[in-house]
Amino acid sequence: QVQLVESGGGLVQAGGSLRLSCVVSGSIVSSNAMTWYRQAPGKQREFVAIITSGGDTNYLDSVKGRFTISRDNAKNTVYLQMNSLKPEDTAVYLCFSQRSWGQGTQVTVSS
Fold this sequence. Notes:
The protein is mainly β. It has strands at 3-7, 10-13, 18-25, 34-39, 46-51, 57-59, 67-72, 77-82, 91-97, 100-101, 105-110.
């Protein structure tokens, strides 16, 4: 049973930064693709970033150059570093792997 626990969300002003963490149990982060999604109120859940088992990364166009996905194999944790945050980044951010979802962490960016 894969369990994913996100943390690191909060309230930040536009232009600020946050780092989200996703601690994984029941699976090895370096052996599986790890994905961040987000869901804003009244909107569909959307893909944000992925890191493959081989270390390749890909991003939603609107976050390229601002967000960075990474992993710490020793801590079995995946991160999402978010810089130059915009109000439109406000959403619940969720970690996904192997058909399992975390509970999400709220990110709110004020203008």
